[in-house]
Give the backbone structure.
Amino acid sequence: MTNKLKKISLLGATGSIGRSTLDIVERFPERYQIVALGGGLNISELSAQARRFRPQLLAVQNDAGAEELERALKENGLKIPIIVGRPGAVAVATCPEADLVVAAMVGAVGLEPAWAALDAGKNVALANKESMVMAGRLLNKVAAANKVAILPLDSEHSALWQALNGESEAGVEKLILTASGGPFREFSLTQMAAVTPAEALRHPRWDMGPKITIDSATMMNKALEIIEARWLFDMVPEKIEVLVHPQSIVHSLVEYRDGSVLAQLGLPDMRLPIAYALSYPERLRLELPKLNLAEAGRLDFFAADEERFPALALVRRALAAGDSGAIALNAANEIAVDYFRAGKIGFLEIAAMVAEVLDKVEPREFSTLGEILNFDDEIRRSLSDPENSGN
C-alpha cells in the first residue's frame, strides 16, 4: 500500500457523484486530500464541504453564488479564493497541487475543464460522459501526449475496465453495457407519451441528478455510454451492445472471442466505482453493504427495445456521422431534456427532437477544442426556441 497522500481536485462537488467522492475521501483521510472544489448552484452544500475539507480553491457557477459563498465562509472564519464560471472550473481542474482530477460535472460544460486537466498533466477520473461523447478521440490524444490516464468513474465503464483487465480489442467479441430500463421499462408507447417530468425523475435504483435521471428514463444515457465506451476502450461501435438488467447488480459484461463472458457485480452504490478509480491499481477495504447473491435471488436480463427507446438507434446514426454527429446528439438531448422538464415538450418528443437535429447534421471531424465548442454552440442556438425543433 502506498503511503503517499493523493491530492484531489473535484469538479461537480455538490452533485451525487461529488458527494459520494467526498464520502470516500472522508473515510480515508490518511490517503486522500481535497485541494480544490467546484460546485454548482447548491451554495449551502459547497460551503459545508469547504468547512469540512478546507480546500485551497473554490469555483462556483455565477457571481451571486460567489457572493453567497464568500459570506458563508466569512461567517466561519474562512478565506478561500473563489473563481466564477468556466475560468473557475478550469482553475480547479488545473490546480497545481492536484494529482488527480475527479470530473463529475454534468453536461457539455464539463468538457473544457476535463481537457484542461489532461493538458496540464493530470490524471482524470471521469464521470462526465459528455466529455468523451463530444471529444473522446481528441481527449485520448491529449492524454497520450501528456502521459496521463483517463480513469472510468461511471459504474458501467468501471465494470468494463475491471472485466477487460487490459485485454486488447482483438480478443473481445463485444462489450455489453447493462441498463436498469428506468421506471418505464414495461410502459406502452401510449403510456410513455403521457409521462410527466415528476414521474421521469423517480428512478427505481439509482440516486442521480435530474438530467441523468431523465436520460436513464429515455435510455439516452446508454446511447451516450456507447460512445463513451467506444473511446475509453478503443472499441469499434459494432462491438458495443446494451442489455436491460432491472436489478442493477451486473454493471457490465465483456464477451470474449472464445465464448467466455466476464461480468462485474455489486450493489448499486456509486462509491464502489469511485473508490476503485481513486485507489487504482489497489483496492480499498470499504465498510459498505456487500452484495449477497443468495438474498438477491435472481438476476434478469432482457433485450433493449429500440422502438420504445429510440435513443439506442439514434446513437448509431450519430456515430456514423463522426464528431459532428456525437456532438449534435448530446447538445440536442440536453436542450430537449430542459424543454421536457419545463413542460414544453412531451417525453417521447425528447428523442424525436434529437432525431430531427441528426437529420440535418453533415458528417464532420474536428481537430481543436474551439471547433468542438463552436459546433456545440451552433446546435444549441438552432434550438433556442421549441418551435425551431418542429415541436
User: Anything to note?
Assistant: The two ends are 57 Å apart (CA to CA). The mean pLDDT is 94. The chain has two domains: 6-152, 167-268+300-389. The longest helix spans residues 323-341.
